[in-house]
Amino acid sequence: MRDIRTWSGAGALGVPKIEPVESARPCRAMKPVSNDHPLSQLFADHVRESVAGRRLAGCTEIESYLTDLLVRFVHTDGVFAIRREGEPLNSVIEMLAEGDVRLNADSFERERQVHRHIGDYILFWSGVYPDFLRRLRVSGSNDLVCDYTRQGSHSYYVVSTFDYPPFGEEAPTFRRLSEEFEGYTAALADVAASLPIYAA
């Protein structure tokens, strides 16, 4: 029996609750969704329209990244990918500790990986279902004083500083995500409004 996180329906404010449940068998890993899968194509079309509608500095790389983010986060294993001792972390402050080479990160590559996830995590929830972050802030987690927008932007900036192989080609994408974090949050909010499939 192991403890996994799952959606358990709406809470008092209509916000999904994340609670541990007992599982008698391990979860099977979700197969990657290919770029030509209908779900990827659906997300890609709506992301493209949203970025254009917001008059953001859209480019193929940004639109592809946002589409990939939505696809990866369809499954909760993608949303709660950062773990400590096998347990998924949902607090941004705890993730920061996990990605700090002075604390828990065993390499600068791990630091980059965690900061990329923090940026993704905050961008996703801020755009798709911001009530989740509001609930997380007041639920007794360590995030009470966390400025999510500022942290999401900063985490993408940290990722962008890895501008050498094998990460150099991606660095400009993360710099743009950092600089226009609030704009891309609004773009994902538009996508969520047109495709209300995440919030239970």
In words, what does this structure look like?
The strands form 2 sheets. This protein has a two-stranded antiparallel ribbon with strand order 1-2. It has a two-stranded antiparallel ribbon with strand order 3-4. The longest helix is centred in the middle third of the chain and has 21 residues. With 200 residues, it is mainly alpha-helical. The chain has 9 helices and 4 strands, in the order ββαααββαααααα. The N terminus is likely disordered. The protein is globular and about 40 Å long. It has one domain.
String of helices and strands: EEHHHEEHHHHHH
Strand order of the largest sheet: 1-2
Fraction of residues in helix: 40-55%
The overall average pLDDT, rounded, is 84
Q: How many β strands by DSSP?
A: 4
Question: Which structural category fits the helices and strands?
Answer: mainly alpha
What is the general shape? globular
Stretches with pLDDT under 50, minimum 5 residues: 1-28
Estimated share of beta-strand residues: 5-15%
Distance between the termini: 26 Å
Q: What's the number of structural domains?
A: 1
The total of helices stands at 9
Radius of gyration: 17 Å
Task: Note the main sheet.
Answer: 2 strands, antiparallel
Question: What descriptors fit this protein?
Answer:
single chain; 200 residues; mainly alpha; two-stranded antiparallel sheet; 52% helix; disordered N terminus
Write the layout of secondary structure elements.
Elements: E1 2-10, E2 16-23, H1 38-53, H2 60-72, H3 76-79, E3 83-84, E4 87-88, H4 92-98, H5 108-128, H6 131-138, H7 148-160, H8 171-179, H9 181-194
Antiparallel strand pairs: 1-2, 3-4
